[in-house]
Structures are given as C-alpha cells and as structure tokens.
Amino acid sequence: MRRILHAADLRSRRLARETGLTAAQLAVLQAIADLGEVTTGRISEDASLTQATVTVILDRLVERGLVERYRSVGDRRIVHSRLTEAGATALAAAGPATSARLIREFERLPADRQAELVTSLEWMAQALGVSGEDWPAAV
After folding, report:
1. Residue span of the structural domain in which 9 resides
2. pLDDT in tens, 106-123
3. pLDDT band for position 56 (50/70/90)?
4. Does 118 reside within a domain?
5. Which residues, other chains included, contact 71 with Cβ-Cβ below 8 Å and sequence gap of 6+?
6. Domain containing residue 26: CATH number
7. 126 vs 120: CA distance, rounded Å
C-alpha cells in the first residue's frame, strides 16, 4: 500500500515539476478534453472531484489561459468550459495519465485476476473509509 501511495506521490510531483500542473488540474484538463465543452458538474463526475474543487481548479486554469468558460446560449445559468489551444498543448505535453496506463494494464489481465484485484481494491477503499456512494459511477 505504501509503495502504491509513494509511486502516485512521485508521479504527481514529477508531473507538477515538468508541467507546472497538479494531478488534479491535469485530471480536469483531461476530463474537458474527453468530454468536450462541458459543465462543472460533468467534469466533477468524470474526474471524481467535488464541484467545489473543480470550480477552484477551473479558476486557476482560466487564469493561466488553459481553459475558457462561457455561458450557455439556451440557459444563461449554465456555464460551460472548454480547452484553449494552450490547454490542449499542456495536456499533450503531460503525456498519458497514470490512470490511463493503469486501466490499459488492468485490461490485459485475465478476467479472474481482474475480479481478484477489484475485490481487493474494494476492501482497501472501505478500510480507508470510502463508501460505495463516493466511488465514480463508471470506472
């Protein structure tokens, strides 16, 4: 468990040093890239972050010129976000997300091994106090 957390921490620090972006900022940029022009709520779901956290991250990304926000023409209460050219460039420079690599490697495993890992990770999440409602809908 410590090795996993340590590896994730090292990856996050390296990304921050190389790109100037935190792992959470990269997750938000990736969510926008994957989903297109999108609401904060949808980014929150995709990136497994709270809407409040996403709002703060978006504020910083807008300040850096990596994301732009605009109001919906049909309903002015709805705010959409989209990547700027600089945002797309920053995301591309960061390389594939650790989670994408992990998912790719997981999919290579036989089904019985995948099931074992899922059971173990569910146990670990529960032991850490994460309930099923806190998990993303589709992983």
Report:
1. 2-94
2. 899 999 999 999 898 888
3. very high
4. no
5. 77, 78, 79, 80
6. 1.10.10.10
7. 10
